[in-house]
Write a structure and sequence with these properties.
CATH architecture: Alpha-Beta Complex
Catalytic activity: N-terminal N-formyl-L-methionyl-[peptide] + H2O = N-terminal L-methionyl-[peptide] + formate
EC number: 3.5.1.88
GO molecular function: metal ion binding; peptide deformylase activity
Strand order of the largest sheet: 1-2-3-6-7
Number of strands: 7
CATH class: Alpha Beta
CATH superfamily: Peptide deformylase
Keywords: Hydrolase, Iron, Metal-binding, Protein biosynthesis
Radius of gyration: 16 Å
Number of helices: 3
GO biological process, one term: translation
Largest sheet: 5 strands, antiparallel
Strand content: 25-35%
Structural class: alpha+beta
């Protein structure tokens, strides 16, 4: 288990839809462990695989003391809405009101391939929607009204971290035979 660098706004991986997970293997379990460790270290309410540079449909959450993960999620959203503060580990230091569905029912799988159903309201509903958006290449600033989005973009352009190069990932020149990521 290791803490990985979080990709920041501007990194193309954040705008690329993630691929469905097809292998529920040791590599996936390592990814879930790394996502969880990175999320807790940040700290954050959730973290999606693309945020650490992995283009797979997996995310973790930490809401109200509960830590969980979901693989290949599909969501059913309520028509009732909630408005509340939202931020993102890929846009550090910025929070703003964002409208989301008040409740969510998420179907997916755990890291072992077992079916999983998660029902959430309030913060858990917000986190599940936010992280699933990441899996679709959508950032929460895309959901803001025009004025709020302008404020977000102004913050991003002025942020010390904006424009920093994406972390370089070193790949072993040796065949790993599926052992490790």
């Amino acid at each position: 288990m290791s803490v990985r660098p979080i990709r920041l706004f501007g990194d193309p991986v954040l705008r690329t839809p993630a691929a469905p997970v097809v292998d529920f293997d040791k590599e996936l379990r390592t990814l879930v462990e790394d996502l969880t460790a990175t999320m807790l270290d940040a700290p954050g309410a959730g973290l999606a695989a693309p945020q650490i540079g992995v283009g797979l449909r997996v995310f973790t959450w930490h809401v109200d003391g509960e830590v969980g993960h979901l693989v290949n999620p599909t969501l059913t959203l309520s028509e009732d809405l909630q408005e509340g503060d939202e931020g993102c580990l890929s846009i550090p230091g910025f929070k703003i009101d964002c409208r989301r569905a008040a409740t969510v029912v998420a179907h997916g799988f755990d890291q072992h391939g077992e079916p999983l159903l998660v029902e959430g309201t309030e913060m858990l509903a917000r986190a599940i929607q936010h992280e699933t958006d990441h899996l679709d290449g959508i950032l929460f600033v895309d959901r803001l009204d025009r004025e709020a989005r302008r404020e977000a973009m102004r913050f991003i352009r002025e942020a010390e971290w904006f424009g920093q190069p994406a972390p370089q990932v070193k790949v072993s020149p040796h065949a790993t035979r599926g052992l490790g990521i």
